[in-house]
Amino acid sequence: MSSPASYEELLQQYQELQLRVTRFSAIEQELINTRDRLDNELVMYKRLHEFNVKALALQAEADFLALVAEYIIDIFEVEEAAIILYQPSVKKYQLIHEGLDIQEKDCTHFAQQLIAALPTPVTGNAQLLNKEEVKGLAFFKSYDAAIAYQYTDEDNHYQLTIAGLISTAKAPLYAALQERQRTIFGVFGQQVQALMTSRKKTEELKKINAELDNFVYSVSHDLRSPLLSIKGILSLVFNLEQIQPETAEYLQLAETSVERLDNTIQEILEYSRNARLHVKPEQFNVKELAEEIFKDIQFSTNLPVQFHAQIEADPMLYTDRSRLNTVLKNLISNAVKYRRKDIDNPEVHFSLFQQDDHWHIEVKDNGEGIPEDRLDKIFDMFYRGTKNSIGNGLGLYICKEIVEKLNGTITVESKPNEGTTMTLLLPKIKES
Q: When you count CB atoms within 10 A of the terminal residue's CB, does the N or C end of the chain come out lower?
């Protein structure tokens, strides 16, 4: 029979336990901070996308600038927005604003004071202004902070200033402006600049959109780094001896959250890669690709789902393997994820046919299905098709973007409690 532990031994065990608790708290906080940053980035990116869609559909300059003012408040959650269009040749100021209570006769004075608060403008950079820097606007309201972007067109015909403002009275209701907001505001300003100048040069719009894609790609990589660190630390903690069951449960929850966030970031990276990279066709066996994808999913989840492949054409396809892998991974994963739990034979059927000069690919399941009134929305960004959806609504949107990049189409047929069929039509690419 072993002797009772001494006081020193108990104290050492207690200190070790306290150290583990401290480490876990640090991991948990880092995870929360990363999750919050990612959530904010996703919301901003979604609103930037919505802005682009609406802005491209507008023809009148006044309507476009009014939309800019509206989306400054919506995207960056500031109190007021001001758009100043200045023509140096005639020294004429035009002020378009949202949420700003100002008389028409005071617009020029307001515009002059706001522009005077800015340093020498450099295209592509946004400025964060503090209370001291915007004190010249006190004639209208006492402002606590502002964020602004300014540029002049190549021919020096006009100068555009885009600004969001927070008054001192309302400042406690808003988060303090951070460097990240300044960076994204700069990207937003570049988009506005591109949309303005694209009336003369459409290529400028393509360049700025590419910069936005690079920005998203860079941000996603930056966010993945702390997530991978957390995953590594969690793995080390799991291997420690004498972990209490309750602690292990909390660690498992943290690991699940990290995995979900990492999946979201990877989907953003897939979207960015699809937008940035050219199609690179290669020859591969699509049947083997689909089987490998299913095995990986089944291995990671250990779910009782049967996989069947029906191949009625040469399985050697010549197309972009990486892009098709992303599409099939999403479709097969969804088929497994949304299987019916109340049946004994959940199945996924993969089919390949040749249809004229196209490949006809189907992924069919007997799962939960999707209601008819939601079918026309499932390919929208951030839309989730079922009440049981645990994703972020990017998967099928990315699939559609990729398929269109391959000059193909993707369609869906589904009935609740009967299953879903996703159909791809991909044109054959001639080997060079």
A: N
